Amino acid sequence: MKGYIKNMRGLLLAGSFAVIITIAMALPASAHVSINPDEAAKGSFGAFSFRVPNESDTAETIKLEVQLPADHPIASVRTTAQDGWTATVTKAKPSKKLTSHGSEVEEVVSKITWEGGTIKPGQYAEFHVSMGALPDDADKLEFKALQTYSDGEVVSWIESTPEGGEEPEHPAPTLMLTKATGDEHSASDTEDTEAVSEANDDTNNTVGYIGIGVGVVALLTALGAIIKKK
Description:
Blueprint: H1 2-26, E1 34-36, E2 39-41, E3 46-53, E4 61-67, E5 76-79, E6 86-92, E7 99-100, E8 103-104, E9 108-119, E10 124-132, E11 140-142, E12 145-149, E13 154-157, E14 174-178, H2 189-229
Parallel strand pairs: 2-14
Antiparallel strand pairs: 1-3, 3-10, 4-9, 4-12, 5-10, 6-9, 7-8, 11-14, 12-13
Helix pairs in contact: 1-2
């Protein structure tokens, strides 16, 4: 009987580690502002989210400003409804000639500001946008971001990560651009909307995984208590 209990305790310990790993994988991969997904094809249209964790123990995040790369303007940038948050779009003249559907683009989105909501300590939020067509003359896009806390602190996520080098303390959210596949320019507004929906589904799935992990931990704890009594 003692050997059986010992084996069960070993299994419970191994199961606990597995649950912890699962939860860690479900949470945001990094403790800084990032873009998700972080890779897309050149010339493509798609939906992306800026993932913002609150790194303060006492203050709430109350504002996020994201600057779009001026050297590689994007013709179409749209925000979506975000509970509790209001998105303000700032536009500017593109730094170089840009066309969309055969017409020259006179204004592009240069900055998006979200405010009005809060991200509490220990939480994170995702801010969704659809963008396209992504430039075909760049290998990556940096979206410099400013995160403002309720105590007045502003964290600048604006540092470039050198190729093959160590990540800086406050890296800018970076979207890597891969070789075009040939189907990118056929994307429609409907596809953009579907992509936004998929991004929301990903967020909901993450929350679901965390809930499952917590439930499994509770079950393992209960089993451990029963075995200990025996």
